[in-house]
Amino acid sequence: MIIACEKCNTRFRLDDAAIPRDVFKAKCSRCGHLFTVYRAREREESPLELGPAHELAAEPAQAERRRIITVCNQKGGVGKTTTCLNLGASLALLGKRVLLVDFDVQANLSLLLDCRNQRSFFDVLESGHMEELPRAILKVREDLWLLPSNSRMALFSKKYLAQPRFEQILQGHLGKVKGFFDYVLIDTPPSIDFFTVNALMAADLALIPTQSEFLSVNGVSHVENILSVIGERTGHRVDFRILLSMYHGNHMAARVVAEQLRQRFAGRLLDTLVEQDRKVQESQILRSPVIYYDKDAPAARQYLQLAQEIRRL
Q1: Alpha-helical runs (H) found in 161-249
Q2: Domains of the chain with CATH codes
């Protein structure tokens, strides 16, 4: 595994076999700083289990309704995958059953959870046995599951784009598993294409992360427009909220753009914002949500606050 000193950012490679515990102290050989290291847990190989346990789980004990949330923005580099992962982990820590759906050919969400080259939605669809979809879902942490992506997903749009109602493929098949979960979070590519349209058709809420800069905000307007088109053409109305991510509050330009967002999208901008935090990058190296890597990190606290705000919507 790779660890990074909190003080000087020097990185070290450790032999996993020589590490006796999941949490331990390390001393930087460069600056002498002593810091805590959290080793990412290995994912569980067992797929989603159905049967009586599934029937019980299909009716959550609380009255809170289940939600399918698509995380999207036409612009890349705004923190979509990071938001999907860390919001999902935070909801799971609040006791909610959460499914993460990696619906991006780049498969970055699967990579961050160390689930590369696993069976994807497209693989199950191509097999002709969609009843096996639950077996493609991997448990990665307590109350947190993943439907992975892989490079073969690139064939998905090429094969199905010309088919009637191609935009409803994911929506139709998520019904086989969504009853098991309180929340389904769908990660999408940085474009408004086959995958994003499918994901929005499956959702009842779009979460749009954006940096506090002009080009990212322009991406928000594009998503708003496509939601309007989807609603007019299909009757499927999707609500949306905007999340300020990787925020630099000490930058005047960031504060100005944030105020413009509040005025332009009144009532749509979430109260929670997520600051730029190097702990997020460090946690990604360890294939772990930041709240498991360092629960006291600013971003960890903010993603937990985001989860609580999402629950209140």
Answers
A1: 169-174, 194-202, 214-234
A2: 1-39 (no CATH), 47-312 (3.40.50.300)
